Amino acid sequence: MSHLFQYMAFLWSYISTFLSSQSNAHPTLQVSVPVARSFIESVTEKAVGTDVIRGVQPEQQLVKVVNDELVQLMGGEVSDLVFAKTGPTVILLAGLQGVGKTTVCAKLAFYLKKMGKSCMLVAADVYRPAAIDQLTILGKKVGVPVYSEGTEAKPSEIAKNGLKEAKSKKTDVVIVDTAGRLQVDKAMMNELKEVKKAVKPTEILLVVDAMTGQEAAALVGAFNVEIGITGAILTKLDGDSRGGAALSIKEVSGKPIKFIGRGERVEDLEPFYPDRMAQRILGMGDVLSFVEQAQQVMNQEDAEELQKKIMSAKFNFNDFLKQTKAIAQMGSFSRIIGMIPGMNKVTPAQIREAEKNVKFMESMINVMTADERERPELLAESRERRRRVAKDAGKTEQQVPLSFRRHLI
Ligand code: GDP
Ligand code: MG
Asked: Environment class of residue 346 by beta-carbon count within 10 Å: exposed (0-12), middle (13-18) or buried (19+)?
């Protein structure tokens, strides 16, 4: 089964090569490297150990393995909010600036109100008067009281007094809005620790912007070590992002994502379903038919040979031509790209550019000597050779890349 990965990995990297120079970046899955590595390892292990079931296509089995692993990685099941056994439940929201904490306050209040719970919002972001105004307006919109003491008081004091007030009014849930910074910093963490000490929250939810890419793991790790989160909320999933941050959160902190935000309105909050998220991550292209077609044009030995060459960096221009031919047999670039997850947002202009790049490479390879095709380093080493290739292919010398390796794998 593992050869299926080889097809996909190769085709993916092949096409990426010709798209990577495009400035208009298409959304790809951004995942922290250690998380991606351990994920690939566990999928490979499962896939290799899986017997092919009769009557089921191996590639369908493969997609299922990947899907199941993704669901597991994200916690498997829906995780509900935890409520305090006695007295008000305190939910503390933490996160960087602009990720959507204040918006989440209102969204959660709206959500909890529908469940029949009474709520109070506490304005503990004291750095900008506008932050308190924003929370006050949102509170009005959802019809819940907002406790604030202006910008002079300490956040931990505000939170403590807010909780006192909520107790006296027998409010079910107190949601504390806090200040974020552009980056993780000591002052923010200390302030959160003080608030935590003052109100002993039932839930400490880290709000994470779904656009957060590779840095998600470090971010979640830092907040979890410093303040000990109980879960996370992933916001802005209505955008282009594929939500790779979702994969890091559980893996790094051991804590589940509890909700997702899908827009700016107070109604745009939903419980987090790991299986739906897995579909979002996987299901953007027709993975199955893609793998199937790849299988038809390359036999297994070819793929393994190719993989070995890529690993040992001996991929030469002959291999390139062979693969270009194999890929051409699968159909046009636009058709192939439409089948690869994460690449279906590539614009027609980008596809034309990618096709042009392939043609451009071919025209140069066509005028190379057999030696040069075997050993791409000859071109890198000799200006004379590059000049000759450029002239014979009808290009300028500057158009001939100094190092072809970058263009090969
Ligand atoms: P905070 O600094 O963490 O409190 O972030 P805010 O709650 O003030 O939100 C920052 C911006 O992101 C605001 O313009 C929000 O309207 C917007 N925002 C928050 N959540 C979402 C979401 O789920 N989707 C979209 N598209 N925008 C959001
Ligand atoms: Mg805010």
From this structure: buried
Domain-wise residue ranges, the chain:
2-70+283-366, 89-272
Indicate whether 222 pLDDT > 90. yes
Which one-letter DSSP state was computed for residue 197?
A: H
Pocket test for ligand 1, best of 127, 264, 266, 269 (most atoms within 8 A of CB): 264
- Please, are residues 273 and 322 in contact by the beta-carbon 8 Å criterion? no
Answer whether 263 contacts ligand 1 (Cβ < 6 A): yes
| Distance from chain centroid for Cα 313 | 29
189 vs 4: CA distance, rounded Å:
45
Q: How does pLDDT run across 276-311, given as a tens digit for each residue?
A: 888 777 754 455 555 555 556 656 566 666 666 655
Q: Left (φ > 0), alpha (ψ -120 to 50) or beta: where does 300 sit?
A: alpha
101 lines ligand 1 (CB under 6 A): yes
Residue 301 CB neighbour total at 10 angstroms: 9
CA distance 119 to 113: 7
Whole-angstrom Cα distance, residue 31 to residue 96? 19
Number of other CB atoms surrounding residue 267 within 10 Å:
12
Q: Is the CB of 386 under 6 A from ligand 1?
A: no
**Contact assessment for residue 199 and residue 176, using Cβ atoms and an 8 Å cutoff:** yes
Residue 382 confidence class, pLDDT cut points 50, 70, 90 = confident
Q: Which residue has the tokens 């030696």?
A: 371
Q: pTM for this structure?
A: 0.69
Q: Supply 50's token pair.
A: 């899986």
What is the fold, at CATH topology level, of the domain defined by 89-272? Rossmann fold (3.40.50)
Ligand 1 site, residue 283, Cβ cutoff 6 A: no
- 98 CA from centroid of ligand 1 (Å): 6
**Segment 36-70, tens digit of pLDDT:** 666 766 776 676 666 655 555 555 666 777 778 88
Least confident of 32-46, 77-91, 101-115, 240-254: 32-46
Query: Which among 96, 103, 233 is the best mutation to test ligand 1's pocket, defined by most ligand atoms within 8 Å of the CB?
Result: 103
- CA dist., res. 73 & res. 65, Å (int): 12
- Note the pLDDT of residue 408: 46
- Ramachandran category for residue 89: left, alpha or beta (phi over 0 → left; psi -120 to 50 → alpha): beta
What one-letter code names the amino acid at 99?
A: V
